[in-house]
Amino acid sequence: MTLFHFGNCFALAYFPYFITYKCSGLSEYNAFWRCVQAGATYLFVQLCKMLFLATFFPTWEGGAGAYDFVGEFMKATVDLADLVGLHLVMGRTAGKGEYKILVAAMGWATAELVMSRCIPLWVGARGIEFDWKYVQMSIDSNISLVHYVAVAALVWMFSRYDLPARLRLPLAALLGLSLYKAFLLEVAVHVLALGPWAALGAKAGLSSLLGLGALGLFVALGHGP
């Protein structure tokens, strides 16, 4: 990857996080260390998930091109730990609901960005050729930010004691979508043979649907019964 291309990918991946932190009001609350603590919780949850998956879900040894639908579905269910982790982070954060949601989402998304995309970008910077996969990774990091803001909002609403009964079913449906989103995308890629850009578009579409649904429920909850 050329230095100019690396700079573009780095800016595309990281600047939306910086802008979100500055423009959302988190900087006014000096929430940096709160976000770091949320990121540390993310790392702990991922470690627990890795140990659990390595213990109870051995590597799939099916034929070439085969896909273990049941096994991958069960592995996706383990992502329930992410929802629990977000709930714990917001429970330990004092402040309004919007502040709790943004702190948890920013810390969670930033930790994932560093672990899953920062290292490949730095490794790619050692090369000399342009590669679109790094652009895709950068765009994917922005999609993940939207995803985690929506998921954090859903978890926060689900934990409220005054949640109206009429909102429980759509809230549970959106939480289920957030939990199995990665599994649904993998199935779509395998069954429909989607390319990298088509898969990225599908991920953006599902994340947008999740975000709009969470926004609608948040507004409905704010206006009361």
Instruction: State mean pLDDT (0 to 100 scale).
Output: 83
- Note the main sheet: none
Helix coverage percent of residues? over 70%
Number of strands: 0
How many structural domains? 1
Q: What portion of residues belong to β-strands?
A: under 5%
Mind telling me the C-alpha Rg? 18 Å
Give the distance, in angstroms, between the N- and C-terminal Cα atoms: 54 Å
Q: Spans of 5+ residues with little confidence (pLDDT < 50)?
A: none
Overview of the molecule:
The protein is an all-alpha fold and 225 residues long. The protein contains nine helices and no strands. It has helices at residues 3-23, 32-56, 69-77, 80-91, 97-124, 132-158, 165-179, 181-192, 196-222. The model has no long low-confidence stretch (mean pLDDT 83).
How is the secondary structure organized here?
Layout: H1 3-23, H2 32-56, H3 69-77, H4 80-91, H5 97-124, H6 132-158, H7 165-179, H8 181-192, H9 196-222
Helix pairs in contact: 1-5, 1-6, 2-4, 2-5, 4-5, 4-6, 5-6, 6-7, 6-9, 7-9, 8-9
Quick structural gist:
The protein has nine helices and no strands.
Characteristics:
225 residues; mainly alpha; 9 helices; 78% helix
